[in-house]
């Protein structure tokens, strides 16, 4: 784990300003520390020979005040920087997830909530305490070792040898802690996803008599165990660093004491170096303590930057009308990071205007990925998608999606009535909404029935019929000429499925239907069967 993620430094101006201010305050603090140690050592030495100490005592007091002011400045700047970075990242994450030009996979709702909420709260420790301590650990120990070498070369050599050893122990402990905190962060993500899934299906699970509390308790217990394990490592590592730094300071003190006894070193110099010795190790020890607090923040930063690290649709041209020409995908390949096998590979797919094409294939063959490419939310790594002679990569995705009606596997809902959910994004009268519901075999759903965003007020079949009605309304009154359907009849009985398929055919627009249902396959004009993409190149899209 890098102490400072360069991606965060490049992205956040607040972090850059914070690091610059931390360096300046660290240098000033180190100078004040040296001045204070020098003044105190000479005050003590002067008292043994009855020399005046007024100026020296004043210097020690002023140096102490300066160190206090520097410490206050570091704390204040760190707290403000942490707050600013969290606010900026949260704003950027929300804007990014809502960006219509965003491409690539999106995090789950539970993962996004965990990250934007509790995950980024860990930046208080990372930005507010760990990053300033990294600067202090990089500035203060070398400065004090250099001063010690000038004042007392022998003690300086001892410090120059032992300080790097403490840093080596810190790195070894940090690697172990990183593994522990990584497991804790993954356990927290699992808990968040599990909690969200339980909430989504709470009514259904309770109706079937399932013990939802036991599952949450088990996941929470695993998270507690990972937290306790990471705390155990943190406590043991703190003891290790304290032990070795104490031994190193004792080694310096013994050398100074023996030379003072034999008259080889004057008292002022010996006290001066002895006061500097523990301060040379103190920033490294505090860095080790803050490292454990910051690891969760580092994981959160990494997760946030992974979400923000994606492509953007480059198109800016006018959108073609799907009714003006065929939709053609040639040599299409989509790959996902970390996967040996492509997510989608199609040699050629052509859908003529007004044609209904059913896309089938086993799970993992890329059916939903194909719809994402056609929708413009995912960019192909190879190949081209052409609509009416226009490359979709050159088309403004926002303008293109005005021509598309889409029904995903899990349709989204908004807080509002059934009518609000159907006419979402389209201006339509109640009669037009009712007609769309009737076409989706959903005439049994009252227009004024309330629907929650979480979908707990509707069944899975009702959710899909609402989405189909929304797509029908978009085609009829929203100008959409391409209909993309991902398992729109799953969970419907035969009668309602037949009604939905009949309405889809009557729309007469270009339609790509992903399905496993025999009735939907039979209703299609043609069937395209996708096979699992092989790691090697080859044709896997077959049009019977």
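-> sequence recovered:
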């Amino acid at each position: 784990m890098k102490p400072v993620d360069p991606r965060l430094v490049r992205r956040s101006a607040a972090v850059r300003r914070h690091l610059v201010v931390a360096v300046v305050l660290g240098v000033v603090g180190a100078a004040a520390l040296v001045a204070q140690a020098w003044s105190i050592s000479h005050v003590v030495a002067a008292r043994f020979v009855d020399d005046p100490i007024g100026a020296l005592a004043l210097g020690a007091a002023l140096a102490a005040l300066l160190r206090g002011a520097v410490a206050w400045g570091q704390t204040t700047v760190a707290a403000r920087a942490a707050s600013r970075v969290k606010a900026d990242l949260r704003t950027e994450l929300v804007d990014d997830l809502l960006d219509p030009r965003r491409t690539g996979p999106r995090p789950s709702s539970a993962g996004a909530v965990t990250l934007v909420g509790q995950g980024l709260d860990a930046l208080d420790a990372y930005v507010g305490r760990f990053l300033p301590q990294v600067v202090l650990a990089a500035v203060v120990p070398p400065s004090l070792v250099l001063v010690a070498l000038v004042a007392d070369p022998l003690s300086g050599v001892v410090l120059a040898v032992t300080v790097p050893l403490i840093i080596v122990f810190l790195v070894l402990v940090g690697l172990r802690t990183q593994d522990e905190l990584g497991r804790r962060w993954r356990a927290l993500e699992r808990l968040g996803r599990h909690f969200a899934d339980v909430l989504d299906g709470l009514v259904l699970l309770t109706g079937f008599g399932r013990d939802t509390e036991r599952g949450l308790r088990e996941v929470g217990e695993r998270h507690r165990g990972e937290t306790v394990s990471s705390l155990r490592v943190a406590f043991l590592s703190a003891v290790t660093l304290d032990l070795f730094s104490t031994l190193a300071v004792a080694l310096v003190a013994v050398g100074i004491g023996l030379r003072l006894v034999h008259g080889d070193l004057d008292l002022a110099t010996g006290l001066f170096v002895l006061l500097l010795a523990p301060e040379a190790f103190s920033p490294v020890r505090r860095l080790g303590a803050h490292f454990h607090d910051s690891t969760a923040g580092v994981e959160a930063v990494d997760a946030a930057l992974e979400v923000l690290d994606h492509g953007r649709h480059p198109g800016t041209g006018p959108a073609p009308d799907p009714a003006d020409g065929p939709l053609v995908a040639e040599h299409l390949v989509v790959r996902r990071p970390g996967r040996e096998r492509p997510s989608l590979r199609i040699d050629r797919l052509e859908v003529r205007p007004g044609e209904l094409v059913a896309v089938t294939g086993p799970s993992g063959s890329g059916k939903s990925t194909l719809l994402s490419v056609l929708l413009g939310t995912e960019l192909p790594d190879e190949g081209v998608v052409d609509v009416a002679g226009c490359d979709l990569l050159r088309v403004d995705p926002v303008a293109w999606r005005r021509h598309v009606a889409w029904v995903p596997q899990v349709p989204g809902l908004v807080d509002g009535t059934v009518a609000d959910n159907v006419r979402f994004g389209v201006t339509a009268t109640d009669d037009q909404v009712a007609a769309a519901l009737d076409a989706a075999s959903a005439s049994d759903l009252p227009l004024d029935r309330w629907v929650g965003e979480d979908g707990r007020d509707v069944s899975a079949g009702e959710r899909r019929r609402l989405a189909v009605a929304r797509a029908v309304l978009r085609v009829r009154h929203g100008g959409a000429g391409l209909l993309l359907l991902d398992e729109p009849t799953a969970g419907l009985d035969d009668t309602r499925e037949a009604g939905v398929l009949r309405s889809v055919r009557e729309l007469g627009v270009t339609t790509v239907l992903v399905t496993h249902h025999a009735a939907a396959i039979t209703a299609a004009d043609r069937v395209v069967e996708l096979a699992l993409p092989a790691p090697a190149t080859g044709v896997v899209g077959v049009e019977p």
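The two ends are 52 Å apart (CA to CA).
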